[in-house]
């Protein structure tokens, strides 16, 4: 089948050919012509016109042509439907619809600026929408920095460690602020390895510097100690079950919580709680 639309594509006129080729018509031929020639060329070439006013495949209300194609061909693919509000937001300048919409518009506008040939532009656009599809299908929950709390830790190290390195202070400001942040976010999984990579600091050096200011404990030992102490505080009240306490203090499950708690205290969480209630 042949599909025809107006020249100089950016959002919908790249997203739609991608959707057509990937989910509707793998052998589709996409044709770009000046706006005032679309209908006449469509009739001449027996092509389906899209994304222009007055044809079937176009905008309806607040929705764009990409949305119409999904409904027309009953495309149920979850990743495609996750892409739809991003394409719609970028194509209609309603970037509030999806947080990724502004980024898609920026990339598409820049791509169109760099490539004057519409067919070369389409080739590059197919790569962009393949990438967006992969993100929507496999990577929506992934973050460049996996734990949001790591951003706070990076701020602390960037602010204090790099500035105060070599000043001779026994207790650097970053150590105290880091301690406070860990205490405030004890339920979050922290990664010293990720920190060292992002800071371009040798992991061994960072680990050694950490222990100097945290009771000669390694990063992992200190985190576990803080979690156990927090768990003890929570066990003083009947509000939470032991399973809930394990979750609230950052352990992977109750079994992990029990094992670490017993290692630190010499007794299981249930025995510890029973003794607390007898007091």
Automatic annotation (TrEMBL):
<feature type="domain" description="HTH araC/xylS-type">
    <location>
        <begin position="176"/>
        <end position="275"/>
    </location>
</feature>
<dbReference type="InterPro" id="IPR009057">
    <property type="entry name" value="Homeodomain-like_sf"/>
</dbReference>
<dbReference type="Pfam" id="PF12833">
    <property type="entry name" value="HTH_18"/>
</dbReference>
<dbReference type="GO" id="GO:0043565">
    <property type="term" value="F:sequence-specific DNA binding"/>
</dbReference>
<dbReference type="InterPro" id="IPR018060">
    <property type="entry name" value="HTH_AraC"/>
</dbReference>
<dbReference type="Pfam" id="PF09828">
    <property type="entry name" value="ChrB_C"/>
</dbReference>
<dbReference type="InterPro" id="IPR020449">
    <property type="entry name" value="Tscrpt_reg_AraC-type_HTH"/>
</dbReference>
<keyword id="KW-0238">DNA-binding</keyword>
<dbReference type="InterPro" id="IPR018634">
    <property type="entry name" value="ChrB_C"/>
</dbReference>
<dbReference type="GO" id="GO:0003700">
    <property type="term" value="F:DNA-binding transcription factor activity"/>
</dbReference>
<protein>
    <submittedName>
        <fullName>AraC family transcriptional regulator</fullName>
    </submittedName>
</protein>
<keyword id="KW-0805">Transcription regulation</keyword>
<keyword id="KW-0804">Transcription</keyword>
<dbReference type="InterPro" id="IPR018062">
    <property type="entry name" value="HTH_AraC-typ_CS"/>
</dbReference>
